[in-house]
Write a structure and sequence with these properties.
- The chain has helices at about 25-30, 60-75, 95-105, 120-125, 130-145, 170-185, 205-215, 235-245, 265-270; strands at about 5-10, 35-40, 80-90, 110, 150, 190, 220-225, 250-255, 260-265.
- It contains nine helices and nine strands.
- The protein has one domain (about 5-270): TIM Barrel (Alpha-Beta Barrel).
- The two termini are about 35 Å apart.
- By secondary structure, the protein is of the alpha/beta class.
- The strands form two sheets. The protein has a seven-stranded parallel sheet, covered by helices on one side. The protein has a two-stranded antiparallel sheet with strand order 8-9.
Length: about 280
């Protein structure tokens, strides 16, 4: 049997109010898929009730930490379960995020610009979709420059907000400028396989943006953004083959907020298929 090498670096819990299944169920699928570990990264709380309908409340954070700790103990010696966080970025949230990330030791902090949620749109959307796309990539670059995050999650998610207004050739110069800034920080970027189930049915980021990422030597972390157990490591094989075709040699994961690399060929060889896998559309 191949040696487990990969982690699921992006998955959720019911505390975010739009995921199902206990962390134990996610860990069981990780074991079936031949993963070395599972890093739970549920949606971090925000102040003042922001986004409370799709994330844990501040008073639930300790419950979240304990939930992951119990799962880690349950799967000791089988799956390496670790505590992480998916933490939102928008200007002005830095002090809150810094304090939250320091409360308990975390293994992987994903930084997300969730431009589709109500409180972000209320602040920043003016009715101009192209301007909104430009602002998204500006905020993505700013999030890396804060050094608050290890990896930037689903880094072209904005294409799903208004697919009719997404033209890569038009937005490409803005993406390139953002990627230049991100590359200078050393922050990694996620290849999020759940994009295959969104309005623009391709991974986030898509191949053209991935090619720009490779040119700049930015590390890639795999994440399925699993909101249900069966989605753990979903489409990982397809993602690894895409990365290989684009010239990437390794994929990364974070433990203790330090990055490790796995060769793509070895990563592919380490995976096992689920006996039954049912992929469902998810929110992120």
């Amino acid at each position: 049997m191949p040696t487990p090498l990969l982690y699921e670096s992006h998955c959720h819990t019911p505390l975010c109010k739009h995921a199902i299944g206990s962390p134990s169920e996610y860990a069981a699928v990780a074991e079936q898929r031949g993963l070395k570990g599972l890093i739970v990264t549920c949606h971090a709380p925000l102040p003042d009730g922001l986004g409370i309908d799709h994330r844990m409340a501040p008073e639930e954070y300790d419950e979240y930490v304990e939930l992951v700790a119990r799962t880690r103990e349950e799967f000791a010696g089988r799956v390496d379960v670790r505590l992480g966080l998916e933490s939102d970025y928008f200007p002005g949230i830095e002090a809150w995020a810094e304090e939250l990330h320091a409360r308990v030791p975390l293994h992987h902090v994903l930084g997300s610009v969730h431009m589709q949620v109500g409180h972000y749109k209320a602040r920043y959307f003016t009715g101009d979709f192209f301007a909104y796309q430009q602002l998204y990539f500006e905020h993505l670059a700013e999030s890396a420059e804060t050094r608050l995050f290890d990896t930037l999650a689903h880094p072209d998610l904005v294409k799903n907000e208004a697919p009719h207004a997404w033209r890569f050739s038009r937005i490409q110069p803005h993406i390139e400028r953002a990627l230049d800034r991100i590359a200078a920080t050393g922050v990694a970027m996620e290849l999020n396989t759940s994009g295959l189930h969104k309005a623009v049915p391709e991974m986030n980021p898509g191949p053209p943006t991935l090619a720009l990422i490779r040119e700049r030597g930015i590390p890639i972390v795999l994440g399925a953004d699993a909101h249900r157990p069966a989605r753990v490591a979903g489409h990982y094989e397809q993602a690894l083959r895409l990365l290989d075709e684009l010239g990437f040699e390794n994929v990364s994961y974070f433990l203790d907020r330090r990055r490790s690399e796995v060769p793509i060929a070895a990563a592919l060889a380490s995976l096992r298929e689920l006996p039954v896998a049912v992929a469902q559309p998810v929110r992120s």
